[in-house]
Amino acid sequence: MTAATPPPVQTLSADQARRIALRAQGLLGAPDRRAGVRGVLRSLGAVQLDTISVLARSHELVPYARLGAVGRPAVERAYWGAATSFEYWSHAACVLPIEEWPLFAFRRRAYRQRGGLWDHRVSEAAYLRVLARLRAEGPLTSTELGGAKRTSEWWDWSEGKIAVERALAFGDVVCTERRGWKRVYALAEQAVPAELFEQDPDDRGCLLRLVGQAGQALGVATRADLADYHRLKSGQLDSVVAESGLVPVSVAGWGAGGGPAPAWADPAALAAEDASGGRGRHRTTLLSPFDSLIWDRPRTERIFGMSHRLEAYTPKSRRVHGYFAMPVLAGGRLVGRVDPAREGRVLVARQISLDSRSRLPALARALREAAEWVGCSAVRVEALQDESLRPELDRLLAD
User: Fold this and answer.
1) What's the rounded Cα separation, in Å, for the pair 112 and 166?
2) Residue 153: how many CB atoms within 10 A of its CB?
């Protein structure tokens, strides 16, 4: 009996792959405003957290980029209200839909087997004391549990802080809320809905669903892209990707020397691209460097041809594009960068670079919308890479 010949692998053009990625990330096509911020979170599967706040914190910028000027209090309520999400280690420290609680059981087990995330040691008695306090008093911040010394360095954590972070990694404790950027810790058995808390899928079941979810959020992705989304190991990915529901494709221009490269795609994303005929409404916006569209730098360069790096931790004298340079998305492409700041009710563009004069209207629109969203009534441009663009940009901003 002759084995069936597998169907030919579909080849996508680089433009098709770019549109598929944008649509999967909610940046091509009309936004689903009825689903709101929670809908964005469920679709992306993970929204990265970071301490840097320029226009706003990154987890606020992500839904803004997709929905427009959604109210910032509404963003916080959507993330931290009514046990709809939790914070855990995914791509990095991320807000995750509460429905994904069972899917990270594999990571919680791994941390427990290792004894934690870091090398800090804490006594079993201290660990049990933290759990007992949360059981008796309800949710508490790390400060209320002992906090850390003023320097806030890892080695200055109190015994209570070390214990509760270990409990968070193990899944005995969960963070479903932040107050003033402080984690609020609660017993997982009390804070996670019972129907989710009681689920305990094996490692393979967790990985299978997480790889499928990552594929849906990315639309089309290489092996490395899929593994990076939730920071899975290559072996973990390879053990389940063939059964994840994703289909093998080839993408022109993604390989070495601009040739084709093997990839995986979400069948629904392929169908949506076929149905759209390559058309759709593109979002014009500023993107956080931690946005899941561009958080993977090699993927960003492969899809958009932009080599983008966060320079916040680069010495000022060596920065090229600025402290928190935000790529400008327009027409489905990354067309420039803005390094923003705020001074009172003025949005300050400390540095702007743009790939062509034709992008000026889109840039001005993105700047005006961002200013309005954060409560600024004016935009001031300090430096343009091409100063010949200033008169036209000033006119567009004034309009």
Assistant:
1) 9
2) 9
> Which top CATH class is 309-398?
alpha beta
Mean pLDDT to the nearest integer, 22-33: 91
Q: How far apart are CA 59 and CA 300, in angstroms?
A: 19
Question: Nearest 5°: CA angle at 63, between 59 and 64?
Answer: 105
pLDDT tens per residue across span 41-57: 999 999 999 999 999 99
What are the angstrom distances between the C-alpha of 352 and each of 54, 329, 379?
16, 13, 13
Average pLDDT over residues 340-358: 96
Q: Give the range with max mean pLDDT: 26-35, 178-187, 331-340.
A: 331-340
Q: How do 285-286 and 261-265 pair as beta strands?
A: unpaired
pTM, rounded to two decimals: 0.93
Which residues are CB-contacts of 280 (< 8 A; sequence separation ≥ 6)? 19, 23, 28, 29
Do the beta carbons of residue 85 and residue 100 sit within 8 Å? no
For residue 73, give Cα distances in angstroms to 43, 76, 147, 158: 21, 5, 27, 32
Please enumerate in sequence order all residues whose Cβ is within 8 A of that of 251, keeping only pairs 6 or more positions apart, or say none. Answer: 11, 12, 13, 14, 17, 220, 260, 261, 263
Question: In terms of C-beta distances under 8 Å and separation of at least 24 residues, what long-range contacts does 67-73 make, across chains too?
Answer: 67/31, 67/33, 67/36, 67/37, 67/40, 68/31, 68/369, 68/373, 69/369, 69/372, 69/373, 70/36, 70/37, 72/373, 72/374
Tokens 């932040």 belong to 178
